[in-house]
Amino acid sequence: MHYRAIKKEKLFIQNNKEGVMYLMIKDNNQQFIINESSKLIIEMMLESTDTDEVLSKVAAMYDGVDLEKLRQDINDISCLLNTFGIIIKEDLEAESLTNVSVVNEDEYKVIEKFIGENIDRNELNFASNASYYTAINIRSKIMNNVEYYYKYVDKDGAIKGVFSAAPNINSSTVNITSIILKSDIQRMHAVDILKDSLDFIKNTMINKVNKLRVTISFSEEEIPRAFIDFLEQSGFVIEAVLEKERNDENTFFYSIIY
């Protein structure tokens, strides 16, 4: 794949006092734990324009390396760097890659306002109380790697949906923690928005993603049928049920398994 590094200054790599290495994205305060080989790939990608060249150079430094595993690692990192605007794929440069993007620091207030106006106005929404989604709390969750936030916009730049996900730092499962759609979004359009957003979220995770999961609890008398149908139309299947997990409510794990 041919690409160009366009905003190298947006990222940096640092070690904490315990020796853990982080990739830091400046625009939105997101950080990812990485290892030495990931650090090497990132540094080489920023100095190259071709993933095949990066593959050859890294492979030459490690005897007996699994080339397919290395190729997948390079592909995952290139997707991450492309997602955050660090590189741009040359063959896609002229196209609008996606309507989905990571929420940046200067957008926290906008996201708080959107959620406040729409959280209780669409039966397809899945979220905590509105008071949870303050600009300060959103920033704190992102800074502490608890939740990452994403927005879906239309061709005019109007927000149509906001999503949050808990990063899979020590797991291959990403938990989708919020789905908040604009009040006038209809079911079929909502399915397309969610599918596109989930694909984007999956590609922002530096660790391999085997599952995307929504965890929801409800009683047999209060089944949120519209939301469950929405999940199933978007590709989720029921993976497990924990009976009476929360008082008289059962807890359901709905997952997309890759």
Summed up:
It contains seven helices and twelve strands. The chain has 258 residues and is of the alpha+beta class. It folds into two domains: 90 residues, Arc Repressor Mutant, subunit A (Orthogonal Bundle), CATH 1.10.10; 158 residues, Gcn5-related N-acetyltransferase (GNAT) (Aminopeptidase), CATH 3.40.630.
Protein described:
This protein is α+β, with helices and mostly antiparallel strands and 258 residues long. The chain has two domains: 3-92, Arc Repressor Mutant, subunit A (Orthogonal Bundle); 100-257, Aminopeptidase (3-Layer(aba) Sandwich). 34% of the residues lie in helices and 29% in strands. The chain contains seven helices and twelve strands. The protein has helices at residues 36-47, 51-61, 67-83, 108-118, 135-143, 187-204, 225-233; strands at 3-5, 11-15, 21-25, 30-34, 87-89, 100-102, 148-153, 159-166, 173-181, 211-218, 237-246, 249-257. Strands 6-7-8-9-10-12-11 form a seven-stranded mixed β-sheet, sandwiched between helices. The longest helix has 18 residues, at 187-204. It is globular, with a radius of gyration of 19 Å. The model is unreliable at 92-97 (pLDDT under 50).
